[in-house]
Design goal:
Elements lengths: L1 E3 L2 E3 L2 E4 L7 H30 L6 H30 L3 E3 H34 L4 H4 L2 H28 L7 E2 L6 H5 L7 H35 L3 H29 L8 H25 L2 H13 L1 H7 L1
Parallel strand pairs: 3-5
Antiparallel strand pairs: 1-2, 3-4
Helix pairs in contact: 1-2, 1-9, 2-3, 2-9, 3-5, 3-7, 3-8, 5-7, 7-8, 8-9, 10-11
């Protein structure tokens, strides 16, 4: 610990975690570990299918492969640490470790915000202007969109990590959360954080509402285009693709907005933990399931991959 005036500054935090040692919480912990394994295998399989099947070498699946990679990294930033703390009965984390967790988490969160917006724009161009789709969404544009997502996410993560840890922290070391999330960490600051909270709110407007506005506008235009389609099969295919994406968007943005766009006074530790679990564990697990179960091209690629495996060939035969 260090001294500042008459206050003792703490040198590390203690994460209280998501669970106690009760039988119910042990059961819930087991469920989360199953979800973690499903997320790892599901997103890993999605990346493998997109890389190996030529039918999935299109902009939509290019973005989807990056979404799967981001989900893999996001859940791996949070769950292994949380599981280790729970199993070993400790939750101590250094200032540096907490700062790195904030940086990685917010970078990946920001990445997904913008990537989902670019995915919505991709669907808008594909459905509303199919003849120019290959020209507008060329390889260079797709790579620029992905690079832009990472850049915006990294800038947001760096700003919030640096500014959060610049505050003096004294008194309690206990963060009532299962990872270093900014609103939970700021509760321990022994300084006025109101100006910084305003800055976080402005950042969230840019990082959440701006991409969400692009998504909403894209899907409004898509809806108008789809309703004008004469082909029932075309309408059905467009609705199937877009409804999957909208489901992912609603789950992800809804949880993120509840956490980062509410005033600090309205934050409850229990509610924050549940909402955070939603977009750090549940959404990364559901994303590959949502996109694969409702997508004939992905399920076809999976059958093709299983057919190449000796065990898969015997099962299919």
């Amino acid at each position: 610990m260090a001294w500042a005036g008459n206050q003792t500054l703490i040198s590390h935090f203690v994460l209280l975690g998501l669970f106690s040692r009760s039988p119910l919480h042990l059961f819930l912990f087991s469920i989360i570990m199953v979800m973690f394994l499903v997320a790892l295998s599901g997103n890993g399989l999605m990346i493998l299918l997109i890389l190996t099947d030529s039918r999935l070498h299109s902009p939509m699946y290019f973005f989807l492969s990056w979404l799967s990679l981001m989900d893999l990294m996001l859940i791996s930033t949070i769950v292994p640490r949380m599981a280790a703390d729970f199993l070993m009965g400790r939750g101590s984390i250094s200032f540096t470790g907490c700062g790195l967790q904030i940086l990685f988490f917010l970078t990946l969160l920001g990445d997904e915000c913008f990537l989902l917006a670019f995915m919505a724009y991709d669907r808008y161009v594909a459905i509303s202007n199919p003849l120019r789709y290959s020209v507008v969404m060329n390889r260079r544009v797709c790579w620029l969109m992905v690079a832009g997502s990472w850049l915006f996410g990294l800038v947001d993560g760096l700003i919030q990590a640096v500014f959060t840890l610049r505050f003096p922290y004294c008194g309690s070391q206990e963060i009532d959360h299962f990872f270093c999330e900014v609103p939970a960490v700021l509760k321990l600051a022994c300084a006025d954080t109101s100006l910084y909270e305003t800055m976080i709110y402005v950042c969230c407007v840019l990082m959440l509402l701006l991409p969400f506005s692009v998504i909403s506008a894209s899907y409004l235009r898509i809806l108008v285009t789809v309703l004008r389609m004469r082909s029932a099969e075309g309408r059905q295919k467009a609705f199937a693709t877009c409804s999957s994406h909208m489901m992912v968007v609603s789950l992800f943005y809804g949880a993120a907005m509840i956490t980062y766009m509410r005033p600090q006074a309205y934050h409850s530790s229990k509610q924050d933990k549940v909402v955070s679990a939603f977009y750090t564990m549940i959404t990364p697990m559901l994303n590959p399931l949502i996109y694969s179960l409702r997508n004939k091209e992905v399920t076809g690629a999976l059958r093709k991959l299983l057919g190449k495996c000796p065990c898969g060939g015997e099962a299919l035969g």
